[in-house]
Amino acid sequence: MKSQSARRTMIRAAMAAPYLQREEEYDLAVRWKEQGDQEALHKITAAHMRLVISMASKFRHFGLAMSDLIQEGHVGLLEAAARFEPEREVRFSTYATWWIRASIQDYILRNWSIVRGGTSSAQKALFFNLRRLRARLSQGSESLSGTAMYREIATALKVSEGDVALMDSRLSGPDSSLNAPLMEDESGSADRQDFLVSDAPLPDEMVSTSIDDERRVTWLNSALNVLSERELKIIRERRLQDDGATLEALGTKLGISKERVRQIETRALEKLRTALLETNGDRAAYVS
């Protein structure tokens, strides 16, 4: 109740503040910019608080306190006053509008959800215009829905259809806690996070796999020492690369037939198996 009373008092004061004529506004802006006159700054901002309130009211459907929106708009108003250049002969309200809107929108993006959304200009345009465009496209004789609607919105705002669908799902409901209970029975309660399934390996499995991979690389590098230079070259290019070379390509490079390359490769693999078996019988399985 106290906050609502303070907000009403602030709104009444803003509405009662006198409008500034162009000449008076210019003089006040010059005094503030050149002399740092705080009284001039107060008169300029007080006269434009009704603009702040008007713009804040346009964002009230995002579920945030109106007083907070007005406060953020006032921050934008002060930023505009700090940057305003009266010599350009532009009305202060015209210049301040952008800063007020930007400050309010930034506040909404920071506080509307605990999950941070995109902060690019395209994502901000999608966030603040999706509901309006969706309402417009769903009305009339040629109303759109689903994929067709997403396509139209994506084209209008220059974003992907996937971004539109994702933002639409975010705006369709509030945040849900992973610790929120879904059911409760005799065995106890179950949280939302209990039903999240991950196909990723467990941490101990990842560590074990990493250690095994390092050991295999060490064993294989040691076994490769038994190969001749030509055998090593064939094994490296045929077996140890993502895109293994063909027998024909290697034969051309080495000046031998592809059948000869196959024979050398077979002999090299046998030598590797033998080298691995001499150290540990289980390691022969790593060469195939």
Offer a concise description of the structure:
This protein is mostly helical and 288 residues long. It has helices spanning 2-16, 22-35, 38-47, 49-57, 66-83, 92-111, 121-137, 146-157, 161-171, 203-223, 229-239, 247-254, 258-279, and strands at 181-185, 188-191.
Task: Describe this protein's structure.
By secondary structure, the chain is mainly alpha-helical. It folds into three domains: 2-111, Four Helix Bundle (Hemerythrin (Met), subunit A) (Up-down Bundle); 121-171, no CATH class; 203-286, Winged helix-like DNA-binding domain superfamily/Winged helix DNA-binding domain (Arc Repressor Mutant, subunit A). Helices cover 65% and strands 3% of the residues. It has 13 helices and two strands, in the order H-H-H-H-H-H-H-H-H-E-E-H-H-H-H. It has helices spanning 2-16, 22-35, 38-47, 49-57, 66-83, 92-111, 121-137, 146-157, 161-171, 203-223, 229-239, 247-254, 258-279; strands at residues 181-185, 188-191. It has a two-stranded antiparallel ribbon. Strand 1 and strand 2 form a beta hairpin. Helix 5 crosses helix 6 (92-111), helix 7 (121-137) packs across helix 9 and helix 8 crosses helix 9. The longest helix is centred in the C-terminal third of the chain and has 22 residues, at 258-279. The chain is elongated. The termini are far apart. The mean pLDDT is 80. It comes from Jiella pacifica. Belongs to the sigma-70 factor family. Residues 68-81 form the RNA polymerase sigma-70 domain. Keywords: DNA-binding, Sigma factor, Transcription, Transcription regulation. One of its GO terms (molecular function) is DNA binding.
